[in-house]
Write a structure and sequence with these properties.
Elements: E1 3-7, H1 11-28, E2 33-37, H2 40-50, E3 56-59, H3 68-75, E4 85-90, E5 105-108, H4 113-127
Parallel strand pairs: 1-2, 1-3, 3-4, 4-5
């Protein structure tokens, strides 16, 4: 069981990622807890207030206030989130900037079912060790 957060200021982008995750769930007969956030601020507030721990976060980089990278930097400061796998789903060309927060992967938008399946497999492997 994974707890997954999808953070993007575009509802359609969030919905597409969630749909790809649901396809994987159906194929593998699994069920994940999936939460959507419209901004980095929303996500950080949730972690701060509820103490929620995510196994996997999909972050868009280009959001209105906090970028995905800034959000990831703050997320990494929570001890409970130090092992969270972060995947940037971005249209940015400069993927090197993300290295500082040790993402699991950087995916060019919108991402494909094959890429999402591979990411979910990796995170399940990591969490089952």
């Amino acid at each position: 069981m994974l707890t997954i957060g999808i953070c993007d200021d575009r509802p359609l982008c969030r919905q597409l990622l969630e749909t790809l995750i649901h396809l994987y769930e159906e194929e593998k007969d699994l069920l994940f807890d999936i939460y959507q956030f419209g901004s980095g601020e929303e996500l950080i507030e949730e972690v701060n207030q509820s103490g929620m721990i995510f196994d996997l976060l999909f972050l868009d980089n280009s959001m209105k206030k906090l970028t995905g990278l800034e959000t990831a930097k703050q997320i990494r400061q929570f001890a409970s989130m130090s092992t969270c796998s972060i995947v940037f789903v971005t249209s940015a060309d400069d993927h090197d900037q993300f290295r500082q927060v040790q993402p699991l992967q950087v995916v060019c938008k919108p991402g494909t079912k094959e890429i999402m399946d591979a990411i979910l497999e990796r995170v399940l492997d990591i969490n089952n060790r």
